[in-house]
């Protein structure tokens, strides 16, 4: 037995010398450190972004420079709402906002809708499985100790109360919202923010994001 182990070890050493063990035909995929990205799914979230951008703009150009907010594409729900919310937030922060573009720096924004068609699954929040395991253990203990079956729902209810506010449904659709302040071809401020959105809300940000049905035309009668 010992001789077999020695022979196997020697063979492995020879093979290691012939072939590089730490090689591959292409880079191996790896994950990123855990990070968080907010999900935008209410008009209130648009106002939160507008408030954030108004403060950044004030820090970049100050409140003395006149500003004019471009309305964007009137056919897009987000452009209409965000333009109004951003205007309100700028005024509330003391900015000078004009109704015409003459003599003012231009505040504009662009939206890119990103659809992922082959996205891997996202891991559950840290502690999820520990909490579920604890709930199962308590429920198992309850079966032995508790006489009222309804009490078995208590561990599950407690777990739901603890985690329900932190769980967000994963999405394959994201938006990149870039707010820019320009004057005479000079960029004075630019800020981009990335959010998840619900797939059904994609049309709020870009009409072209609405899926269309392809029709094949032929010259046959």
Q: Quick one: overall form?
A: elongated
In sequence order, what are the helices and strands, one letter per element? HHEHEEHHEEH
Biggest sheet strand line-up = 2-1-3-4-5
| Tally of contiguous helical segments | 6
Sheet-strand content, in percent, reads 15-25%
- Say how many strands there are: 5
Radius of gyration: 28 Å
- Would you identify the regions where 5 or more consecutive residues have pLDDT less than 50? 210-217
Average pLDDT rating: 77
End-to-end separation in angstroms reads: 81 Å
Structural topology:
Elements: H1 2-18, H2 43-61, E1 66-69, H3 77-92, E2 96-97, E3 105-115, H4 128-145, H5 153-163, E4 173-183, E5 186-197, H6 202-205
Parallel strand pairs: 1-2, 1-3
Antiparallel strand pairs: 3-4, 4-5
Helix pairs in contact: 2-3, 4-5
């Amino acid at each position: 037995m010992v001789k077999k182990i020695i022979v196997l070890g020697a063979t492995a050493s020879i093979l290691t010398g012939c072939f590089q063990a730490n090689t591959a035909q292409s880079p191996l995929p790896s994950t990123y450190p855990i990070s968080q990205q907010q999900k935008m799914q209410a008009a209130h979230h648009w106002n939160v972004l507008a408030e954030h951008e108004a403060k950044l703009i004030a820090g970049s150009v100050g409140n003395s420079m006149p500003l004019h907010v471009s309305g964007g594409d009137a056919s897009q729900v987000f452009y209409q709402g965000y333009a109004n919310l951003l205007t309100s937030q700028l005024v509330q922060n003391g900015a000078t906002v004009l109704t015409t573009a003459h003599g003012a720096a231009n505040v504009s924004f662009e939206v890119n809708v990103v659809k992922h068609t082959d996205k891997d699954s996202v891991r559950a929040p840290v502690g999820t499985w520990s909490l579920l395991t604890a709930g199962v253990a308590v429920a198992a203990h309850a079966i032995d100790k508790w006489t009222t079956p309804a009490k078995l729902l208590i561990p599950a209810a407690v777990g739901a109360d603890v985690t329900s506010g932190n769980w967000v449904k994963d999405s394959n659709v994201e938006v990149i919202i870039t707010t820019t302040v320009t004057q005479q071809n000079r960029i004075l401020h630019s800020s981009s923010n990335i959010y998840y959105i619900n797939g059904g809300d994609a049309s709020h940000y870009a009409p072209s994001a609405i899926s269309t049905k392809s029709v094949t035309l032929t010259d046959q009668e």
